Amino acid sequence: MEILYKSTRNGSKPIPASQAVLKGLADDGGLFVPERIPALDRTLEEYAGMSYQETAYEIMKLYLTDYTEEELKDCIAKAYDSKFDTKKIAPLREADGAWYLELFHGATIAFKDMALSILPHLMTTAARKNQIGNEIVILTATSGDTGKAALAGFADVEGTRIVVFYPKNGVSPIQEKQMVTQKGSNTFVAGIHGNFDDAQTGVKKIFADEGLKNRLDAHGFQFSSANSINIGRLVPQIVYYVYAYATLLKEEKIKSGEQINVVVPTGNFGNILAAYYAKHMGLPIDRLICASNENKVLYDFFQSGTYDRNREFVLTSSPSMDILISSNLERLIYQIAGADGDKNAALMAALAKEGVYTIEEAMRQELKDFYGGYASMQETGERIRTMYEKTGYVLDPHTAVASVVYETYRKETGDHKKTVIASTASPFKFTRSVMESIRTSCEDMDDFALADELSRISGIAVPGAVEEIRTAPVLHDHICEADEMAEMVCGFLGIEG
Ligand SMILES: *Cc1c(COP(=O)(O)O)cnc(C)c1O
Questions:
Q1: Ligand 1 mean position to 177 CA, how many Å?
Q2: What's the predicted TM-score (pTM) here?
Q3: Closest residue (by CA) to atom 2 of ligand 1?
Q4: Is 215 helix (H, G, I), strand (E, B) or coil?
Q5: Are strands 160-167 and 187-193 parallel, antiparallel or unpaired?
Q6: Per-residue b or e along 424-434, where b marks 16 or more CB atoms closer than 10 Å to that residue's CB
Q7: Separation of 269 CA from ligand 1 center, angstroms?
């Protein structure tokens, strides 16, 4: 059955999935949501017999209904291939009473790869389906992880170009090296003098520039966005929750239909929203445990029903969760408002204007599936150490936040259901803070020496993503001011600014 996508703010008419993927954001500023959440159409036992790629097809076909079987299977085959260092794509690892769903086996060793390795193919297919002759130019501002994952996903994908801006002095040395060594003739990376907000504002300005849009069009280009509110990133993330459940069933760790809990280290609320969709498709998930770091806006929201971004922004050891506006939460708010776009739009307007909104009691009742928790930096570091000492397994700081919150949840509720914890990054991506948690002194070692040491103590080979940048040549050395970003883009595309 066909599913169309409408805006969470009611302001636009429903469109097919491929058009929602191309647009990213609705014209009224809302996010695209499916008109209804489809139900799983296979038995749990059937999923248990499938590969990751087969599961991906079975789930994605329920949402992306205007893609043909051949198109979807082709996108899936191109995305989940040898870029991943395991055939399982998303393996489960048991440690200390929970299953860690490792979502970091792709090209950039963080979970963003799960969606960003398929988005470029969903997008180019969508362009073809909608007779768009223009080349798609992806424009991204990044605070570190998304930029590299998007670069890796779009590099050398025909019909696309990708431009990434990052704050020159605002990312880690490893993150910068990952980006500036990116291969692919369709890639462009530039550092800007300014912080992440300046980069983000610059990108938004370019998107809003009608004159530039027309000049681009005249030269056969059009902009698009790869950020996490694109429905083409959300749908592929539902797959691994079904796959995780099916793996537990196949390995006889659970009985068919047995309820499990899911814990997700959360920033922009995309990953945990995918788990919520999986639950509402009929996957036997009981609680959705939302783990925050010290930027605990979401914890406070689940406690009080008030979302309040007016607070100090804390730089933590889990930077990919340092977020005060969780964009994807809007999709949940819309859902618990009874799919009432006007009600949602009013709350989002309050958020934009005052930085705060409160939901009504009836909506709070709809949040009973969720449990919010948070972990301090100290607890996170201690968890990395105790997990290592107890089991030999090394967690990255984001996953460790989830692990702390899970412990708190178990103590508080006495709920001992089998639990899957989303493991969102390899410890090798955050080597220094991981090693500082396990050992006391690391100051005299550079990041690569630390990676070798981590490899030695964990018994895990240094991932290719780290190995490869050790000696890789710098291919991008552009630096500009925030107000020169549009010129840089035009220069790269070979058109007049
Ligand atoms: C992006 C990211 C998160 C947060 O995921 P959301 O979908 O934004 O909630 C958590 N951990 C890591 C390592 C990430 O890169």
A1: 20
A2: 0.95
A3: 320
A4: helix
A5: parallel
A6: bbbbbbbbbbb
A7: 8
Residue-wise pLDDT for 6-60, tens only, equals 999 987 799 999 999 998 888 888 999 999 999 999 999 999 999 999 999 999 9
Of 148, 206, 157, 204, the residue nearest 178 (C-alpha): 148
- At 399, is the secondary structure helix, strand, or coil? helix
Instruction: With CA atoms as reference, report the closest residue to 318 among 354, 293, 342.
Output: 293
From the candidates 13, 61, 88, 112, which is the catalytic residue? 112
Domains in the chain with CATH codes: 5-87+111-231 (3.40.50.1100), 92-109+237-467 (3.40.50.1100)
CA 308 to CA 305: how far, in whole Å? 10
Local structure of 132: helix, strand or coil: coil
Residue 246 is encoded by which pair of tokens? 């099916």
Sequence letter at residue 83: K
Could you give the CA distance from residue 246 to residue 44 in angstroms, rounded to a whole number? 7
The count of other CB atoms within 10 Å of the CB of residue 63 is 22
Nearest in space to 394 (alpha carbons), one of 303, 313, 463, 474? 463
430 to 109, 110, 205, 309, 354: CA distances (angstroms) = 10, 10, 32, 27, 35
pLDDT in tens, 190-207: 999 988 778 888 888 898
> Which of 288, 380, 398 gets mutated to test ligand 1 (max ligand atoms within 8 A of its CB)?
398
CA 144 / ligand 1 centre spacing (Å)? 12
CA of 258 to the centre of ligand 1 (A): 27
Which residues does a 6 A CB cutoff place in the pocket of ligand 1?
A: 110-112, 145, 228, 265-271, 320-321, 398, 424-425
Q: Is 312 left (phi over 0), alpha (psi -120 to 50) or beta?
A: beta
Q: Which atom of ligand 1 is nearest to the CA of 273?
A: 7
Residue 368 annotated to the active site: no
d(CA 143, CA 148): 10
Q: Is the dihedral of CA 210, 212, 214, 220 positive or negative?
A: negative
State both tokens at 365.
């009742």
- Do 298 and 326 form a contact (C-beta atoms < 8 A)? yes
Q: Ligand 1, residues 320, 370, 428: which to mutate, most atoms within 8 A of Cβ?
A: 320
Ligand 1 binding pocket mutation candidate from 111, 297, 384 (most atoms within 8 A of CB): 111
